[in-house]
Prior knowledge:
The chain is an all-alpha fold. Helix content is 68%, strand content 2%. The protein has helices at 2-34, 39-60, 80-83, 93-97, 100-123, 127-146, 148-151, 162-181, 200-232, 237-242, 246-264, 268-273, 284-293, 296-302, 305-309, 315-329, 335-341, and strands at 275-278, 344-347. Helix 13 (284-293) packs antiparallel against helix 17. It is elongated and about 85 Å long.
Amino acid sequence: MEARIWPGLIAILFGSLFLIVIIVPLIAANYRRFGRLSPGRIFIWGAFTVYACALLTYTMLPLPEPGSYECVAPRFTPGASVADIADYDTSSARALVTNPAVLQIAFNVLLFMPLGFFTRLLWGRGVLATALIGLGISLFIETSQLTGLWGIYDCAYRLFDVDDIIVNTTGGLLGALLAAMLRLRPVTPRGELGPRPVTFGRRFLGMLGDLVSVGFISVVAEISRNLVQISVLGQDPAVVAENPSPAFGWVAALAIQLALVLLTGRTIGDFIVNVRYKPGAVPAVLARPLRFIGGIGGYQLLNAPALTDAGFGWAPGLFTLTVFVWAIATPDRSGLAGNISGQRVVDAFRAAPEA
């Protein structure tokens, strides 16, 4: 029982972590494709990431320690799995239900059946496409087992069985047929496609995207700097670790966001939720820097390492709260950045032409 449970727990863990990694691209894709966020589609994607991880963990794990495994001879004869049923008790219906060979076949079918639902709900694929996708995934899994994870192990540590390819593909096909019978349709937001009102929730996601992107850029910049110091300049890793430079990451994040606003008039968060600022009476050459200072730029400037070290660590949090409250207070959600720049935030969505 434990051997069946722990791969599932691993799938939930890594599926959730993977969803965190792709959540920003998913939000951005929703706003560009549909003009709004689709919670149902995000939920389905979350379920799919867990399912995909479960598919890998149940078919690949556990990985044996080197020298602790025996090579497993492959089975290329179709029907061998069915013949295995006779090796166990088949005297009654109850015996068949608990027959390990029957359970193995049933488990493989059930493992691939959700594939039919996901291909239907996420990509709108039909029965034939799902069957081919199931065949391709099954071939990849079985070939990975046959080659010892593509040469990582010197021989197959798990059984390659041609029946598994047949059964797995059948599971995906059954899932697709069931999805078609239930008349499932791709999960998309309801309503007509087109520009939509900019809500506070959308602005909040955009501002949150700016905050996350600033932290991400800072961390990546600092790691890159450390790698250059160690790998290129040949400095001692211990010395590099003892002398961090938060100012470098801060400057990199500030420069990237400022350049983006000056060139496009939009921050990373604006691109994520697909909004833009409509020009007003103030010329763009002045409005864009003001728009930057009234948004993520103001937060970054107040979060300068020198100010933080001087005891002003509370300033970025107070500014963030002010920006959030200001966005709530302005009916069009332009907030502080829009007010001081004379610009109005609008939806940048444009419906794609019909295929």
